[in-house]
Every structure is written in C-alpha cells, then in structure tokens.
Amino acid sequence: MIANLFYSPRQLIVGDAQLVGVLDIPGTHSDRPPIRLYFPATVDETINTKKKLKQARYFVDNRAAYVLQGFAHIGFARHTTKFHRFVLRPLLWLLSFIFPPRWLKIPDTVLVRNIDDTKAVKYATPKSLDKQYQNLVVFSHGLTGTGEENTVLCTSLAKRGYVVCSIHHRDGSSSRVPLSDGSCLFYQHFPTGEDYDPKHRLEQVNVRAQEFLYSTAFMMGLEDDHGLTDHAQSILNQIRPHLRSDHVVGAGFR
C-alpha cells in the first residue's frame, strides 16, 4: 500500500555516485541554522559497521508528527490553543505512526549517525563528474516549508556529485523548525493578519540571507565549528578541502 502511494514510473534518484551520504547537523542558539547535508559517498565493504548502516528517511528523526503539527498550526488552529494541544496534537502523533513518509527511506542513501558510521561512509567524487565536484549547492526551502521537503531533489543533486547544504530557516516562515534549546519555532502569523505583509516578509528575507551566508561560510570552514559532534566534524573535514568559494550555487524556493 505504501509503495503504491509513492510509485513513480521513473527512477527517483539518478546520478553516477555510488551512494549519497546524509548528515543532519543541529543548529546553534545564535548563528547556525539546522542543516541537512547531502554528499556523494561510498561505503567500505570491508568495514563491519556496514551491517549497522541505515538509509536516511524523509524526515529527520522521523519527525512526521512535527511537520503535521506545523501545518495544523497554519491551517486549523494555532499551537497555543487548547484545541491544538489537546485534540490536534494527540491525533497528529497517532497519524504520524501510520503516515507513509515516516517509514519511507530515501533511495540510494546512507545516514551518518555516529563516529562508527564514518569508518565505513566516506566522501567520494564520481570520476565522471570531476569537473563539477567542487560545486556547493546551498538550498533554501519555500514558504511554510521545511529543510526536509526537497529531499529527493537534494539527493539527486548529490548523486550527480554536488555537495548540498539544505537549510531549515528560523525566520518564522517554516511550518515548524526545531531550535537548539529543545523548543520549536512555529510559522509566525503577522499581526496585520495578512500573509504577505511587505515589512515582515522583508525582515524574513534578511534573516534568510544571513543564514544563507553563514551556512556557506560554515561549509567552507570559515566559521567556528562549535557544537559539532565528532562524526559531523569527520565528514566535514573530508568535504571542505574540495569546496571552492567561487563554486557556490544558491537554489530553492521563495
């Protein structure tokens, strides 16, 4: 049933890379937004940890319930209301356990979760893509979106040899974004009641621009790596020497 719901007559992920590594990097309190990193990868077949490696899922940590709550906040009742807290939230958590994307794995990917995984998962550039492997794609999601909704596109870009840094913006335009202190930021409704208040949208664009520039500098190793886990640091150390500041591509929706 689940397979039929997401059936595609064509292969979803295409490209010459053996695999796509997926690394989730939490945001920090002040500067770095949450990032989902996609990179062309290979797996060492001789490493025993390969048996423990898992494919990445469409939602970070299976957060289908969080995404549903975010859209419920936008379309039905705000997250501060009793209806949302005592009716919608329990119902959405229940639905998330049977919601197909929670269980679907991203084809041709391997999730890097800990330092043991980095013994088997390595950054690897497809030989057929040597001329473009230095390209970094910094991806910005659309209004009410998340950093996870364009997973297939980002994975396909990485399968072609690009390194993709997908940002989960904290400008108030996302349906729901997790913060470093364990709380979350829901979509911010404007005081005017308008969806496209020019003043507030411009403020959001400025926040996005700052997060875009910071994420780019972070990927280049020009920002402090505070808060990084050992396995994230290990993967970034492999990738960064191959990136160039004049080969950065901005992509996404707005």
Radius of gyration based on Cα positions = 19 Å
The main pleated sheet reads as:
7 strands, mixed
CATH homologous superfamily of the largest domain - what is it? Alpha/Beta hydrolase fold, catalytic domain
How far is the N terminus from the C terminus?
Answer: 33 Å
What proportion of the residues is helical, as a percent range?
A: 25-40%
The CATH topology assignment of the largest domain is Rossmann fold
CATH class of the largest domain: Alpha Beta
Query: Outline, from the CA principal axes?
Result: globular
Mean pLDDT: 86
Structure characterization notes:
By secondary structure, this protein is of the alpha/beta class. It has 2 domains: 2-58 and 107-252, Alpha/Beta hydrolase fold, catalytic domain (Rossmann fold), CATH 3.40.50.1820; 59-103, no CATH class. The protein is 31% helix and 17% strand. It is built from 8 helices and 9 strands. The strands form 2 sheets. Strands 1, 2, 3, 4, 5, 6 and 9 form a 7-stranded mixed beta sheet that branches. A two-stranded antiparallel sheet has the order 7-8. α2 packs antiparallel against α3 (82-96). The chain starts with a helix and ends with a strand.
Keywords:
single chain; 2 domains; alpha/beta; 8 helices; disordered N terminus; 254 residues; seven-stranded mixed β-sheet; 9 strands; Rossmann fold; 17% strand; 31% helix
